[in-house]
């Protein structure tokens, strides 16, 4: 416990034992030992007997002084390390050299750990998972807080939302950079972080951990850390997918590459599907896949082709299904691709395309000369298959939600009023998830003038938003206020907000 003190000219327990063994007056010997080895501060000598009278043990007093000095020293070391003094490394090395004789003292070890270089810390971390977990845990919590703050920011529009930052920009975040530095080229530490992320994803179902899994790998890729990238079987798949996320579209060439990676998973290596599913569960990946799906469906419609005849569409659905099943796969440890329900392709997608055709037909009708117009009215009901799979299948539900966003982006009031009531009942209440509501609120900025009509306000508030009692109304109202509505629009908004507070369904939930 006291190893190293003699090397610094400080007496230890063995010296006291020898002194007491050879002395004739133990009390005087103890008093002299305390004087010689105590804190050499003249003004303190009169205070110590006062503490004795109050029953304060000398050990307790010296421990408190030690703790205070250690904290001050750590602050000073941190200041030196973060400074721009060219001699700072020399100062830290000199301090370490003087401290190393005390490396076996528990009270000194924490200080030495903080002072030592990250290369040394990696060697310590790889043999002490609990210590590494203590270092990583605050960073993971910070990452989630930052993601949720971005989702609930009122600085929101169609041009600036949660998915606006490029993958490269996101990887410059403080947490990703710190984790990358901590891992370095150490495969064991990288595997530990991945295990932390899997565990937290299972515990919380928070998909932002999936984002961090992909961002961390690509951050190491940016630094050309081949020691890790070459052994992570998801590297090339994630690299290709990252390029798709950057373009917000999966083109035919990259689709073939991604399919090659999935088809290349060999027997006995199925566990890699767990990591691939996490990467596809990343909201940024999911956003890209569904946007590509909606775009693909539009192209099929223009070509009079069926969804099942498109290999690219089938791959997109396959990846969506794999990503949506990430939690179940990792939880069950059954590493097998989930089978996409065939009727999603044969019934749900055709039903959704029929909605698109209805809207297109009505739009064309309105552009005809008055003498050529018929009595066609805009349909209000949706096909039964559309509603059924919106409620029963998560892949279909995701596509339906993004089609709704697509309609809002087109400023298509009629189609939006038709779709919103159907979102009241969706698979696992996906329509009321943070990410979808974030995007929908941003897209509604394009329809700000429509809020001046009773019909549209009724569709948005009565038909959809009032249906859920855990909606973050504070965020919604704050964002709507930032739209700079006209006085007429503001009247209707206030009216419906008042109804929200009166409605027994809407228990106001403030985060």
Automatic annotation (TrEMBL):
Domain of life, per lineage: Eukaryota
Pfam family, one: COBRA1
Coiled coil: none
Annotated Gene Ontology cellular component terms: NELF complex
One GO term (biological process): negative regulation of transcription elongation by RNA polymerase II
InterPro entries the record matches: COBRA1
PANTHER family to which the protein is assigned, alphabetical: NEGATIVE ELONGATION FACTOR B (PTHR13503:SF3), NEGATIVE ELONGATION FACTOR COMPLEX MEMBER B (PTHR13503)
Protein name: Negative elongation factor complex member B
Lineage: Eukaryota, Metazoa, Chordata, Craniata, Vertebrata
Gene this chain is encoded by: NELFB
